[in-house]
Amino acid sequence: MRKRIIALISFLCYIVCWTQAADEHYYFKNLSIKDGLSQTTVNAIMQDKKGFMWFGTKGGLSRYDGMSFRNFKRDMNDNHSLGNNFVTCLYEDKKGNIWVGTDAGVYIYYPAREIFAPFNLQSKENIQIDRTVSAISGDKEGRVWIAVETQGLFCYDPQKEQLHNYTLNSFSANVQSVTSDNSGTIWVGFYGSGLFYSKDNLKTLHPYLSPKDGEEVFKDDVIMKIVPGAYNCIYISSIRKGVQELNLTSGNLRSLLLMDETGEMVYSRDLLVNSDNELWIGTESGVYIYNLRTNKYVHLHSSKDDPYSLSDNAVYSLCEDSEGGIWVGSYFGGVDYYPKSYTYFEKYYPKDGDNNLHGKRVREFCEDNKGILWVGTEDGGLNRFDPKTKTFSFFAPSSGFTNIHGLCMVGDKLWVGTFSKGLKIVDTNTGNILKTYQKNASPRSLIDNSIFAICRTTTGDIYLGTMFGLLRYNEQTDDFDRIEELAGRFVYDIKEDSGGNLWLATYVNGAYCYNVNEKKWKNYVHNESNKESLPYDKVLSIFEDSHRQIWLTTQGGGFCLFHPETETFTSYNSSNGLPNDVIYQIVEDAEGLFWLTTNSGLVRFNPETKQVKGYTTANGLLGDQFNYRSSYKDETGAIYLGSIDGFVVFNPKTFTENKSLPPVVITDFMLFNKEVRADEENTPLEKSITFSDSITLQANQNSFSFRIAALGYQVPKMNKLMYRLDGFDKDWITVGESPIVTYSNLWHGDYVFRVKASNSDGIWGPEEHLLYIHILPPFYLSFWAYCIYILLFIVGSVYAFCYFRQRSSRQHRRQLEKFEQEKEREIYNAKIDFFTNVAHEIRTPLTLIKGPLENILLKKHLDPETHEDLNIMQHNTERLLNLTNQLLDFRKVESQGYSLNFTKCDITNILKETYMRFSSLSRQKGLDFNLELPEENFCAHVNREAFTKIISNLLNNGMKYADSYMHIKLEVDIEIQAFYVVTKNDGVIIPDEMKEEIFQPFVRFSQKEEGKLATGAGIGLALSRSLAELHRGTLVMAPGEDANVFVLTLPIIQDTVITLDSDMENMDAELQTEASGEQYSDDKSEGKQSKESKHMVLVVEDNPEMLAFIERQLSSQYAVVTATNGREALEALDGNFVNLVVSDVVMPLMDGFELCKTIKSNVGYSHIPVILLTAKTNIQSKIEGMELGADSYIEKPFSPEYLLAVVSNLINNREKLRRDFAKSPFVAVNTMALTKADEEFIKKLNEIILSNLSNQEFSMDDMAESLNMSRSSFYRKMKGVLDLSPNEYLRIERLKRAAQLLKEGESRINEICYMVGFSSSSYFSKCFLKQFGVLPKDFAG
Fold first, then answer.
1. Across the chain, what does the average pLDDT equal?
2. Do residue 1192 and residue 1305 come from a single domain?
3. Where in this chain does the record put each Response regulatory domain (predicted)?
4. Which is deepest, 220, 608, 1197, 1224, by most CB within 10 Å?
């Protein structure tokens, strides 16, 4: 009976203790598998010396740095991994190594090397730990005590590296807990045998006996935990006795906790002495926090409705970190963390039960006369909150209007503004709804059923803010007056300032102020061009501080201070450090600091210093997003702030500064985004990066990353990290969301990586974590590389000295050789220039010799002897001419930029023609002259003239030295697209060693000089090779001394080929035919007329003899005018009616080409044919002359008969064109144009005539004026082009137009007569008959 009474009294005491402490709140943060924990059953918790938290679970070992986990588990492929995943206990020894107890032995983790090693040391008794480890602890001497199931107790001495096993065979139970007190006494708790102690290192073991009666208090009891405490006390947790306090000084044993508030026995697993006065007890039913001074406790347990409660009631481990935070490990809930509170926010949020908050979206607070706080929500209606008891009661009638937007106390009446439900009047004494106001047809009813703000002024007026304007309550008529100035405005907040002025916050129209003195409304809006205007037009609230200053908050523009003197605003927004520009409410505390609610947490703002500090869920808030118009401060200074998750209550006076500075560590090192460990092969880490002071990296390891962490756990997200790499970064860099710092492609050298951290209050630690980094240079920049470079430099210098010395000597020799070559070249060029100049000069005298000689030979009645002498003279003249032509050709080939124009030619025909020319010579010398050709004709792209010269030179050279035969052969190779011309002769054989030299200019083979090469005038072979090379071919002598064999190789197809007009190609042949034919004779006979009727020819030649010769040849048939250069020729053209111009090309002042260009481009002369005479025989010169408009091109020396034939042909052709034009009625006048200038002239003239055809008065003067020409120039041009006077041409054009009209047959002859400008039909008929040989009527018929 006595025991029952004692138990009942104890139970009542526990109930009182628990009830007295129940009003305290503990908010836990949970870490589980989703956060990275290895497994949810946490058997052991420990914090190491670095600051890492370690959690031993059934699924491995986890290390936590405040932001992320690193898990250690068994890896069959890694010998240095944890050997068993079932962790039972943890202990850190004095060296910092972590002892991990598992259900199959002990493993030691060496953090510096990042490896696990099994503790396989055998004890002196030859026993090795291989069973479940119950506990590991240490004593003052550094020894490690290990309790192992069925193996007793082990003691490891790290200094002696000895392990001793105490089997404790006299005890049948296992050791569950072991510890040592301040005196060195070892306390051992058994699982079923009670509590024992030893003062002689377990030589003897004594049970604990009560000092009062000597009884064994814990006999046969299960001792779960023994921990030392303050004041020389130890705390024992057992199954039967609960939690006991043993004072080792007095020997008193005090029972602390045996049963919980429900009368159930407390099953305690772990104990934690949090402070001298507080003991945390981990049990099967949650956590008990026992106050050792007051003997009161708080029972914390898991609640499914409370996210801040313990996650599981089965608590297995407890640990206090260096910051004072408590870590709780449970069986199913992972780890729960209770941080030491520096910023205590009391949280209120919906829970199951009637006495809890209804609704999460807290909108309004209003205190009634009894001190009850009415809380309006937007989703749960009205709640009554008692700040003293901290209990809620739901206002049941509000179930019909759950969306509350405005609250205001008027006496004992609570005015409640709702969304869409009108205005409710609640009696706070009875809890009844006295009246409801809603919008109706009356103009004095509510303007809208949604009431967003209610304000009672000091004068007793009540104002309502709605979506469509402002209302004032009329108490006498019990209705509402509408404020017309605010009609249509969405009123969000109403505030009366200390001056009695009424301020309104509107949603889109800025802020309004009603001045009570002036009885006038003033509107303040945002002005983009004025920075001192309202920052945003969406104003959420109005606030007046203790200094009577007006502040406005906005939705998007921050908040601002109003200056009444200037009616301007000073704005504060995110650029001033605010986390968000949406500010809901401002509350001022007793210190004058502002508390601002935002979308991104709570902000403390100092209006004096403008300093900003933020608070988020990491600091204990319910959520980061607060709600509109949801703030309140009571008389005690407690501040209530509503959010979308409930509301928080705090008193800023209770806030303390967090002076705990988190240690900074580097947790991971990565090379090229791959983690590198100290235990890996080829790793640059000698030990863990966390413990490293320096690292050395290879040159190819210059891109790396660090993961850094601040080991502070209270508000880890608020901790800040900054880093800098000396030698690379100039300034400190703040770490963002990712804790990984990366550097890429660093240059070799020495660097210092610095990291520092701040705590949640922004206090930066003075100490920095330093890591010295040395990046080795690449081999080509290493010490040995520089040694090699120096050696190579020396060798190179010696080599360079020798090389440059030899090169200088070679250059000197080359300069001498070059000098000699230049001298030879100068001599060679002098020879060429000399012969070329002589050749040019010879050609003119040759012309004067050749011309008269041909005239003499044409005369009859020459005696045979004289005729023979003249033939010899002509033969040698031709020979001399060929020699000069070769010299000129060779000079052209030698000049730079010279090229040939290729056409498709019949090679077989050319060879046949050349063969025929040399046939008579071969017969004279009695040579066997043979030509071998393919069966079919063969064509290729060659320059006909150049190819003929090559073949002629080869045959001429062969004929000269051949004794008996001269053979020529054509071969074609289609596969390589080339053909060969081979000449072969006997006679003087050129040796093989000299077969290349004979192609040099001015070199010939002299048989008289014993087969040596001798210089001479021969240039035929040199010219032939040059021409072959211009064909992209070769000319060589075949080896062998049986005969002289020359091989000419040319490509069949050339890249560029031109096609000349067939008339131009055959012009020479035609002219030759005409010169020897009957037509020429007829023209000569026709030309025998008086000088007055002869055609006029202008001869331009700078050589007087040549000029006289040409004049003499032409004067018999033509009137000749002479000039010595181009300028004189132009003057002669202006003074004479010239029919043709014969001009030399090379002349002073103005050459023949320039003269030809001027004539053909001048409309006054463009009709005159031009013949060019020159010694330039190449095809390019001919083409140039033709492009400039020359009508013919004759080479010097020329045949006088050929010249006469060309002149006669050009003049006669012009005459024939003119006759055809005049006699044929349908030949257009544009057929007379032979040049572009003539064509333009005739076109303009024809247009003028056709436009004036019917004008009978139209005359030559009118035509000349229309063409902007003088009368004489116009007349000369008409005669030159058409050989008609202007009036004759006008008449012919009229008659031709009449012929066209007659053919069309649409008009009568008389009408046509006047249409074409004739005034008389008879005169018209006469002219028509004379011009076309037929009368108009017959022509029309």
1. 84
2. no
3. 1096-1211
4. 1197
